[in-house]
């Protein structure tokens, strides 16, 4: 299979275009692929690039020890609450772009994953986790509503209420029982997972698949964004983050 590799945004994201597929690798292993503003912008650009190439499949994966540690809090004290709000909005825009993609989207998770990284995993249609993968969504600890409705639609309201209220960590096997993980497979099996996903993606003609995805797309995108903005815009965001990080 011929491939061309394009590094985007100072190598924060590695984009590999293969025949009919685009592989997107979060490449901040020294920071556990935490979502900095630059990384989020690079991921949005990578998804747009995949769409421009007409990819049938978009794969999201992480370099190093895990898929993603979620929101990067580094230097948050030097940022205004408005700047932080904008960063959360950009993450929601990324999640919506992935969730409504005309391509089939596949996430490959391993290691410890948190917050917005779990939301990115959940925004993909196919969600493969290594047996060692764990997930935790602590956003409500600092009053943030991000990805909540999407997670609840996948696992059901009661399960979502239990997990999100306790902000507890859950493993890959539990995630599969929830339906949040669609398949358990370690890194050694990822190439086979990608091949199966691409075969499934190409089972329908691209225009037909795009129409199907549009029909199935969530109708709550504006409401999700509004809920996020309301939660993040509550006065004292930095104080809530400070309390969460100090807990």
UniProtKB/TrEMBL annotation:
Pfam families: ECH_1. Keywords: Isomerase. GO terms for molecular function: isomerase activity. InterPro entries: ClpP/crotonase-like_dom_sf (IPR029045), Enoyl-CoA_hydra/iso (IPR001753). Gene3D superfamilies: 2-enoyl-CoA Hydratase, Chain A, domain 1. SUPFAM superfamilies: ClpP/crotonase. GO terms for biological process: fatty acid beta-oxidation. This is Enoyl-CoA hydratase/isomerase family protein. It comes from Achromobacter aloeverae.
């Amino acid at each position: 299979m011929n491939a061309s590799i394009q590094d985007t945004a100072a190598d924060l994201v590695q984009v590999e275009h293969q025949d009919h597929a685009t592989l997107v690798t979060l490449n901040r292993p020294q920071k556990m692929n935490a979502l900095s503003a630059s990384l989020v912008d690079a991921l949005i650009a990578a998804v747009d690039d995949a769409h421009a190439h007409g990819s049938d499949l978009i794969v999201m994966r992480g370099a190093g020890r895990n898929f993603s540690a979620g929101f990067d809090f580094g230097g948050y004290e030097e940022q205004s609450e408005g700047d932080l709000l904008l960063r959360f909005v950009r993450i929601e825009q990324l999640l919506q772009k992935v969730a409504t993609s005309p391509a089939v989207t596949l996430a490959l998770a391993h290691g410890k994953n948190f917050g917005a990284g779990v939301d990115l995993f959940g925004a993909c249609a196919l969600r493969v986790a290594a047996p060692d993968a764990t997930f935790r969504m602590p956003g409500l600890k600092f009053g943030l509503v991000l990805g909540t409705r999407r997670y609840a639609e996948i696992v059901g309201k009661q399960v979502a209420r239990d997990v999100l209220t306790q902000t507890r960590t859950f493993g890959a096997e539990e995630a599969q029982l929830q339906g949040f993980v669609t398949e358990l497979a370690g890194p050694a099996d990822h190439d086979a997972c990608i091949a199966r996903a691409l075969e499934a993606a190409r089972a329908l003609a691209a225009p037909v698949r795009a129409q199907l995805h549009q029909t199935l797309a969530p109708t709550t995108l504006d409401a999700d964004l509004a809920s996020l903005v309301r939660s993040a815009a509550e006065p004292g965001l930095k104080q809530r983050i400070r309390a969460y990080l100090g807990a």
